[in-house]
Specification:
One of its GO terms (biological process) is proteolysis. This is TldD/PmbA family protein. One of its GO terms (molecular function) is metallopeptidase activity. InterPro entries: Metalloprtase-TldD/E_C, Metalloprtase-TldD/E_cen_dom, Metalloprtase-TldD/E_N, PmbA, TldD/PmbA_N, TldD/PmbA_sf. By secondary structure, the protein is an alpha+beta fold. It has two domains: about 210 residues, PmbA/TldD fold; about 220 residues, no CATH class. It is about 20% helix and about 40% strand. The strands form four sheets. A six-stranded antiparallel sheet has the order 3-2-1-4-5-6. Strands 7-15-16-18-20 form a five-stranded mixed beta barrel. Strand 2 and strand 3 form a beta hairpin. The longest helix has 15 residues. The model has no long low-confidence stretch (mean pLDDT about 95).
Length: about 450
């Protein structure tokens, strides 16, 4: 922290009107399996700083992972700013505001985990998957991450957070005669409070259940989007549309719809940077703005977009605490923290007499983020008959528009799964058209 403060002071002394240093120190343990055997195991450390300055009315940025070159990076950031034209929309860096406590983002057991235990956990996932003797594990991964970030700027912002995360992934294939099916499973947590071995058994179980899939004809029916499927569609459409940068650049279909109904009555969508144990939770965002809870959609009505400090300044409003960076080498960009959904919960499968359940999809990245239109291929889909999963379905397509989809929400499961920045339930959509896949 003292080193960071000195670099901020150095930038001001060299002529920057404002300066910020974002520091990051991390430890990552990764184990990968290939065809059921440990193929890669590594423990790595990282450290680096990103320096952002305002000089002559423009932003400059530089980064380094070499402590001997940190002062050089400060000079490079100032030179970068002075080489650019003045930005009339630039309102400055964040100013200090009170920070609220956030809970459940650090676990000492994860911080102290050793490589050999990570290897045991990865092997356990594979072992459980292979209890189905026909199952082959094509790929597996277990990672443990510890990171500490520090943000200091010349306006008085000083904030520090320490976080942990573990996640596991298994991809399996089952072949029986001419029948082939694949499936994956994934889980993630801030703490070692999950039984990661169940990832393997769930993946092989889903692949087993997907064997002997039958074709489906085009028709309109209720569709139950599992957590993976729903999160993928939301990420590729809605989250782009509520990003203030998209709105300000004319790339969002929601630009003029604040205060208008865009989703089903009773549906509320919240971005929560303070969610207990949330993967995107911390005391501040990645530029020092205090984390907060932002209601995006309230009872079906669009209430707010997501802002970082720069996009908020363009509208003379406060940031919503959504300045995100994936690394100290990058400047902040608008991004979600923890997207969660409020809607009456139920057992959506048990309460569906007839429909289709979709576990996951591919092709969400091809969605039109401006209009919200999407067309995706469904994987590990099943009929729903009499409140239970029925026959597996061969390749199937669903298409539609995210805003029409949100207006047709007719149920959400009590169970949720963390998929990146989205805490996703299974969501029932009334009356979607399904078509056979290629």
């Amino acid at each position: 922290m003292n080193r960071i403060k000195k670099l901020v002071n150095m930038a001001i002394a060299l002529g920057a009107s404002e300066a910020e240093v974002y520091g990051s120190v991390g430890r990552n343990v990764t184990v990968e399996t290939q065809h059921g055997d440990i193929g890669f195991a590594e423990e790595s450390m990282s450290e680096g700083l990103g320096i952002r300055v305002i000089a002559d009315g423009a932003i400059g940025y530089s980064s380094s992972n070499d402590p001997a070159k940190y002062e050089e990076a400060v000079r490079a950031a100032i030179a970068c700013a002075r080489s650019r034209g003045k930005d009339p929309n630039l309102k400055g860096l964040p100013h200090p505001r009170p920070y609220r406590n956030v809970y459940g983002i650090y676990d000492r057991e994860v911080d102290e985990i050793k490589l050999d235990r990570c290897m045991d956990i990865a092997a356990g996932m594979v072992e459980e998957a292979k209890k189905d003797r026909a199952a082959s594990v094509t790929f597996g991964k277990f990672s443990s991450i510890v990171s500490e970030t520090m943000i200091v700027n010349s306006n008085g912002v000083e904030v520090e957070d320490k976080e942990t995360m573990v996640y596991g992934y298994i991809d399996v294939i089952i072949k029986e005669g001419d029948n082939v099916s694949t499936a994956f499973e994934y889980d993630v947590s801030r703490a070692l409070n999950l039984d990661f071995s169940t990832i393997g058994s769930k993946a092989s179980g889903l692949a087993r259940r997907s064997l002997n899939a039958e074709p489906v004809e085009s028709h309109v029916t209720d569709v139950l989007l599992g957590p993976y499927a729903f999160a993928d569609i939301i990420e590729s459409t809605l989250l782009f549309s509520v990003n203030s940068e998209s709105v300000q650049k004319g790339r969002s279909g929601l630009a003029e719809k604040i205060g208008q109904k865009i989703a089903a009555e009773g549906l509320t969508i919240i971005d929560d940077g303070l969610l207990e144990s949330g993967l995107g939770s911390s005391r501040s965002d990645d530029e020092g703005t205090p984390s907060q809870e932002t209601v995006i959609v309230n009872d079906g009505i669009l209430e707010s977009f997501l802002y970082d400090n720069y996009t908020a300044g363009k509208e003379n409003r406060e940031s919503t605490g959504n300045g995100i960076r994936n690394s100290y080498t990058m400047t902040p960009k608008v991004g979600p923290r923890n997207i969660r959904f409020e809607y009456p919960r139920c057992d959506v499968i048990n309460e569906t007499d007839k429909g289709i359940y979709v576990n996951s999809i591919i092709g969400a990245h091809t969605a039109n983020p401006i209009t919200g239109d999407f067309s995706v291929e469904c994987r590990n889909a099943f009929t729903v008959e009499g409140g239970a999963l029925g026959r597996p379905i061969k390749s199937m397509m669903i298409s539609g528009n995210i805003f029409d989809l949100l207006s047709r929400v007719d149920g959400m499961s009590r169970e949720e799964k963390v998929i990146g920045a989205i805490i996703s339930p299974t969501v029932k959509i009334k009356g979607m058209r399904i078509t056979p896949g290629a």
